[in-house]
Amino acid sequence: MKKILCFGDSNTYGYIPGGGGGRYDSDTRWTGILSDKLFPFGYKVIEGGRNGRTTVFEDERSADRNGSNVLGAMLRENDPLYMVIIMLGTNDCKRKFSADADMITGGMEVLISMIRAFSPDIRILLVAPAEINPVVICQDPLEGFDEESVEKSRQLKEKYRELARKTDCELFCAGDIVKADLADGVHLSAESHRTLAEGLYEYITRD
After folding, report:
1. CATH, domain 2-204, list 3.40.50.1110, 3.10.310.30, 3.40.50.150, 2.130.10.10
2. Mean pLDDT throughout 117-122?
């Protein structure tokens, strides 16, 4: 079977909006829905989401939140891979990392380079995440999202588009079809998970 690694943050993990700490079940997560839809066509979807994950920035809460610390191991564990779907950048926008949109895009480029170095044959689908909604500023101040975080998240779509051209990756813009839920301004609703899964399914199987 063709294996697809979905490497991302809480919106790949399936965190339920609102701060309660719950996780959508497999039938609700976009990764689970995508797995069910692709399985008949010979694909196996591997879920690799982690709450709080960044591209390359260290988080004092946990070392494995830095995507560059764990991506290599996940590539080795699941070798050979047909595709890596990588959706990161939202957490990088937090105030505590002091990273602008160019720095975040640079972090994503590091991860792409790691995948290319591991195997140049892996198909890379870079997913620009949905924009952060300004409601997060009052909903979750401890996590450090501020007005600049919101603006940086808005810039990622075009920054990632440029990166995809530069690195010869494919690009899918999640924000074109889904929006962050107003319960917290960051995470996706169950409906958005299904919409994202359907969009990715159509993209992957379009040829």
Report:
1. 3.40.50.1110
2. 98
| pLDDT tens per residue across span 137-176 | 765 555 589 999 999 999 999 999 999 999 999 999 999 9
Cβ neighbours, 10 Å, residue 168: 9
The enclosing H or E element of 4 equals strand 2-8
CA–CA dist 58, 4 (Å, integer)? 26
From 21, 16, 33, 52, select the one nearest 188 (Cα to Cα).
Answer: 16
Tokens of 139: 């909903």
Handedness of CA 79, 47, 187, 23 (dihedral sign): negative
For the chain, the structural domain boundaries read: 2-204
- pLDDT score of 107: 98
pTM above 0.90, yes or no: yes
Closest to 85 measured CA to CA, from 66, 52, 57, 108: 108
